[in-house]
Write a structure and sequence with these properties.
The structure is a homodimer.
Chain A: E1 2-3, E2 10-11, H1 16-28, H2 32-41, H3 49-60, H4 67-79, H5 86-92, H6 96-123, H7 127-142, H8 151-161, H9 166-171, H10 176-191, H11 194-202, H12 234-264, H13 268-294
Antiparallel strand pairs in A: 1-2
Helix pairs in contact in A: 1-2, 1-3, 4-13, 6-7, 6-8, 6-10, 6-11, 6-13, 7-12, 8-12, 10-11, 10-13, 11-12, 11-13
């Protein structure tokens, strides 16, 4: 089944004609998610539906690589292109405000992360996937005693080290863009197939995957030198190091599972659309971190 | 909201009149779950709806204790009464056939267990509940390295020690009663409130809670002496010991969470009905273990 990468509306398998008409119609009506997707992925000029069809075929063509290679290349293009995503640029050598923007919005992201991964665990029939998600949730939220705090705990400690207590962080509601992104992931995790949810959530862990430079990423998520210097507090280094160390494994294991199950269950087209949708939600969410950072400036 | 303890149909809060009419009508139509519930909980004789009302009030009366005490006493009455449940009787000094019946059906139960607990984790907004479920799933399914195998792994090893390989166990579909019980728990975990799901699933861990004798249980889940003797293989002792040691904590922590959240969220009546429904599903499922044991007899 083909799905719209901007709203996940379903179409017949390989029916790029119907998808092109849908995209053109929704863009014509100025629906922002469809306009954005067309602009960023196919063309910035108004184009008739029939001309979009070959562009769509090209965009979704896997070439000779596995599905995961296609997901990686789209992710790199979107977040680590010649002009990296603004949050990635800001995180190269982050200010206190940028790190605090990260903390305040990201605690909401991580709570949704738990829900999304738990839905995958609840809805899969594959025990490998259960073990993978359980491991992931232990790292991200469970932790393992005082010596191995969870990523969530490390995030709150980073906030404290920058002068914002955890009670304040926990009491701050998410910005509207964060709220909308979270609602999108909730919808994907609870309603789309678990294979799509797996791809949608764990492709996001590519953000801190330090292997992407070799595949064309212009920069890392942050300049790894900040882990050695003293430009950010130790608690911030501990938080950033955790992702830097865990997310290679998390994203690559998950994408190997996606390759396997999307193939076995004939969900390749669905996964392509849903992974792109998730990347757009993530884009908005990363902008929300910068919006929040503004409130800590000056 | 009052709910029918045999099918979870909803009624207005405290409307035992409507519930009584519903139960009488369904029993009149010989619907087996409603007939069974009436027989086991209120009366074995055909009784007009108006006479059922005070019986229902009495059955659902919490008295002065917390909700969890009511759940415990209903559970004890059902499984550990003067005539214990037939599976509990059989497990006091279990034959090879009984243990193998346990293994073959229980692997399906544990896979559903993962799904149910993951749904609770996905649907709760309380981080204590996430931590509780994560812990529980680590014990039951995740394990922690070779020295701390999961309960699921210990179950499969028990099967192997009795001469039935894990490939055979995993390839055997569940008996119809197991399948129906699993479908019931899936429905509760995915569709009823997470507080009800929490009560429904973790009240079942009372089965191996060794503190119930002090509250009137006629026997333990099994005669603890079998953990010391040599009447069952070591792998069976390892499996049974695990539950014996983990389930006190699992069931009591969960019931404390149920007391708290059922109170805060005004879900006491719902939890009462759903916990009773889950106990009836469990009753059927334990019988399925004995049915399966029959196939290993002789």
């Amino acid at each position: 089944m083909t799905k719209c990468p901007a709203c996940l509306a379903p179409f017949a398998p390989d029916d790029y004609q119907a998808l092109a008409i849908h995209l053109a119609t929704r863009a014509q009506a100025s629906e922002p998610d469809h306009v954005r997707w067309l602009n960023q992925n196919l063309t910035r000029t108004k184009t008739p539906a029939e001309e979009l069809v070959p562009m769509l075929r090209d965009c979704f063509d896997l070439g000779r690589g596995p599905l995961s290679a296609w997901i990686r290349s789209k992710f790199i293009r979107k977040f680590f292109g010649p002009t990296p995503h603004p949050f990635v640029s800001a995180l190269q050598h982050p200010s206190r405000a940028v790190l605090l923007g990260y903390v305040v919005e990201h605690q909401h992201f991580l709570r949704q992360w738990v829900r999304s991964c738990a839905f995958i665990m609840a809805r899969t029939d594959a025990s490998e996937v259960v073990h993978y998600e359980l491991d992931n949730l232990n790292t991200e939220f469970g932790g393992a005693g005082e010596r191995h705090p969870s990523h969530y705990e490390l995030l709150l400690r980073m906030g404290e080290s920058l002068g914002v207590g955890r009670a304040d962080v926990l009491a701050t509601p998410p910005l509207p863009s964060t709220r909308r992104a979270i609602a999108g992931w909730e919808e994907i995790a609870s309603s789309e197939s678990w294979v799509e949810a797996l791809a949608a959530m764990h492709s996001l862990e590519l953000i801190a995957n330090r292997n992407l430079r070799a595949e064309g990423a212009s920069v890392h998520y942050f300049d790894p030198k900040i882990l050695d210097g003293d430009t950010v507090p130790d608690a911030a280094k501990a938080f950033l190091r955790e992702g830097y160390e865990a997310d290679v494994g998390h994203s690559e294991q998950a994408l190997a599972l996606v390759d396997r199950f999307a193939g076995e269950r004939h969900l390749v087209e669905e996964v392509q659309a849903t992974a792109l949708r998730s990347a757009d939600l993530f884009d908005d969410y990363l902008i929300a971190r910068l919006e929040r950072a503004d409130s800590f400036e000056g």
